[in-house]
Amino acid sequence: MPRVVPSLIALSLLLVFPALSSAGELIVSAAASLTDAFSDIEPAFEEANPDVDVIMNFASSGSLYHQIEQGAPADVYASANPRWMDRAVANGFADTAAVRIFARNALVLAVPAGNPAGVAGMEDLTDNRVAMIGIGTPQTVPAGQYAKSALTAAGLYETLRGKYIFGESVRQVLDYLARGEVDCGFVYRTDAVNAGDSVHILAEIPLENPVTYPIAVLFGTTKPAAERFVDFVTSERGTELLEARGFKRP
Fold first, then answer.
1. What is this structure's pTM?
2. Cα–Cα dist 153/75, whole Å
């Protein structure tokens, strides 16, 4: 499918990545929850492939998909759930045969250090002492989609609507928690663990579908290194680096 005329988002990315014609550069659009793990993978891959300069582009999976759809430059796409990768395949930006699941994660309910609101679990979210709940925007943030599904299954999503503080990525929700700007929030276990003492995990949230991460080389790239990058992420070395940041094997 031909890419559409670049939007303002795509044009802004063109300004961010001005040297796209360089064969040695590889643009990887990756979910915000992969920031720490892929920031480890990037130098490890470059050390094994000294002819390649990897440029990371982190945002919510939905925002990244919309960037790709609008013509923004990207060679590899790594999403925090299959929904956005399925959409990329359905709309002709990736081949279904090229999609690989490379990691799993878990959604947790977390609170700021000290738990000022005294939240003990999901059963407390309707209590008056819980005024602000951090959640990723469900339309574009997979962690928000997972949280909405869990809250809907518990019959709480609409009841709590007036308490939500929406984040444009799971990392933004984590920042709300770390700064104590919300009483509790829904983030991935890897994010909460890597936040250290500033965030405390209360409970892992049961989900109908597990949190899985697909990755694929995008149509249109002419960079042989794109396939090598995907191979590296799915290799034993890549898996070790992901596990070091709390991700589970697929």
1. 0.81
2. 37
